[in-house]
Task: structure prediction
Amino acid sequence: MRDEQGKTAGGQSIDSGWSGLCRIGGVAAFILLVYSFATMAQLVVVGGQPATAAEAFNLLQENKILGLLRLDLPTVLAVPLYYLIFLGLFAALRRADCAYAALSTVLAFVGVTLFLAALAALSMISLSEKHAAAKTEAVRVQLEAAGEAILASDMWHGTGPFMGGILLQSGAVLVSVVMLRSNVFSKKIAYVGILTHGLDLAHIVLGVLVPAVGVVLMAVAGPLYLIWFPLVARRLLQLGRVGPSPAVP
Result:
């Protein structure tokens, strides 16, 4: 008969059927690490989100790729990778604390979905094309007003994404606490996770009340992601390599 479980370094076991999710989660974490570095480079080289709808329209009309970059289309493509990371974390931690591992996954899934519900980039393309074809200034003004409304409710400003961010970071803090109570992940990974996502959660909440404090908190939390992503990725990939043991005669 074949033993369908492999032992991890911490003494926990990962069923061979779940190890694939660990590998997928590890790869997703590495991709998000690359995305984080790319985003930093983008902010320095081409700038952040346009300040006004008129600026966004001009960008899209002059260089659609550059306009989409500054309207955070890469973020729209990258954030769903959190689904895969949390599936991997659940696969790794379900034996340690199934209830809280599941709760953290649900919180993260709902949070990511709410965050993605307010997509500005694709909506702005349509408005930009209409703005370029507009025959009168009155029509252009109306389209710019519609663009401002979209920017005001996008993934960085809307109520849905705000709640999504709270739920995602709450799920990440919770799963880090589960890591701390298990022996599947090291204490270092757990503490870095609690600090990173705890600061990001505080940044989201306090950023509304005291924007200056929110900026400071994010300035600290942001670089910590560059530590958390590779630590989680490496551990999930290690767990994903634990497959079935050789057949026993």
Notes: Residues 8-50+77-118+158-240 form one domain. The beta strands are 5-7, 13-15. Confidence is low (pLDDT under 50) at residues 1-7, 243-249.
